[in-house]
Please model this.
Amino acid sequence: MRSAKSVGSALLAPSDWPTPAPTRP
Model:
């Protein structure tokens, strides 16, 4: 897995994920 910082950034930017976040439509 990536660094904790990367994970935090991903949580703040779900649009960057390959799949949509469960809390975001």
